[in-house]
Amino acid sequence: MGRMDMLGTFFKNDENSLHPIWWGARWRFKAHAEEMFWRWMCSWSRAMRRPSDMGFDDDGFILPPLETNEHIVKCDRPFNGEMFVKHAVTMQEQREERKITLKARCEKITELVKGKKQSLIWCHLNTEGDYLEKIIPDSKQIKGASPDEVKEETFLAFQKGELKRLITKPKIGAFGLNFQNCSHVTFFPSHSFEQYYQGVRRCWRYGQKNKVVVDIITTEGELGVLKNLQRKAAAAENMFKMIVKYINDELKIERKITDTMKAEVPAWM
């Protein structure tokens, strides 16, 4: 089944061309097709999150608890050219909101890391990283421009517990590194669920012995970004749940030609 066949079989397009900024193309399940879609997914894919998904014991697999806290920073300054404070809707407004609230968000992180043995601090902008490094004691930032030797030295120092506060971007350090020595993570939300998931998993992984606390810092104007991130997290959770639900079901796929029209041939044949 090709992409367009799959979309036409299981989904309905709710595109609203009158509001391209807020809506755009949206696909949703047809009322009768959701269960069939997940069964079709199980015909060519496999997924598991824990041994019990395949009928085995989860002993030794379950990680320590994960606690997620949301902190909303109030923005008192309107966008340029605006009289009142409003929620950021477009990408341009979201970028402006981040610049306006940069100091308030970073100072909130300073409060949250106090008293923590170690903290992994994720940021997205160079200005965020520079200001965080300036105001947080015992911190060091890894930038994209940092020499490879400095990056390696800093990562190892944090991994060994010699560095208390590591500041970096998800696109630099959120993939493949092991920081189970740290149990506190701070995050500025973005639209990328993959970056958030990987950023948290650097600490919430095998070898972690303590409860992991994740503090998400955002603003009133960027609540839409946080809600979008939460929507993607819920969709990912549901995907695994549904695939695991049907993965062990008996499945039979028949491929046959259903043409019933008799071919006409010339009389002389």
Automatic annotation (TrEMBL):
Domain Helicase C-terminal residue range list: 107-207
Coiled coil: none
Any single Pfam family the record assigns to this protein: Helicase_C
SUPFAM superfamilies for the chain: P-loop containing nucleoside triphosphate hydrolases (SSF52540)
Entry's transmembrane regions: none
UniProt-listed InterPro entries: Helicase_C-like (IPR001650), P-loop_NTPase (IPR027417)
Protein name per Swiss-Prot or TrEMBL: Helicase C-terminal domain-containing protein
